[in-house]
Amino acid sequence: MIPFDFVVQGPPVSHQTKNKQRLQAWKQTVRQAAQTYWNAGDIPSTEELTVVVTNFYENAAPDVDNIVKPIQDALIGLVYVDDAQVTDCHTKKRNIAGAFKVKGLSRAMADGFVMNSDFIHVKVIASSNFEEI
């Protein structure tokens, strides 16, 4: 059900990695993490969507534009029918040791902060509600 958010523990794998096995394993990790938050009876959305990805890291983080595609691919058939439905994508990286405010802390994001390690927070909303982010 949209809006939907979840977290994935660990640093992301760049779409540009030369290690394709590692990339496929990362996509599977993302999908499994999403499945733990997705209601089993919900069907994939067919509406236009916005995806917001925040990489909370401690030491180093890949370029934000290189982490989005594997995450979007992992959600096909679970959260949405096809990633062509994604009309907007916003990516951020934040040093987890830094100071920042979190407005509207979701259960998923709270789970990420208690992991005490690098994590990715992914939020999927209807594109018509983008201003609510």
Could you please describe the fold and organization of this structure?
Helix 2 (68-74) links the parallel strand 2 (49-57) and strand 3. The mean pLDDT is 92. The chain has a 4-stranded mixed sheet with strand order 1-4-2-3. The two termini are 17 Å apart. It is built from 3 helices and 4 strands; from the N terminus they run E-H-E-H-E-H-E. The protein has 133 residues and is α+β, with helices and mostly antiparallel strands. It is globular, with a radius of gyration of 14 Å.
Note the topology.
Layout lengths: L3 E6 L10 H18 L11 E9 L10 H7 L11 E10 L11 H8 L4 E8 L7
Parallel strand pairs: 2-3
Antiparallel strand pairs: 1-4, 2-4
Helix pairs in contact: 1-2
Index terms:
3 helices, 133 residues, single chain, 4-stranded mixed sheet, alpha+beta, 4 strands
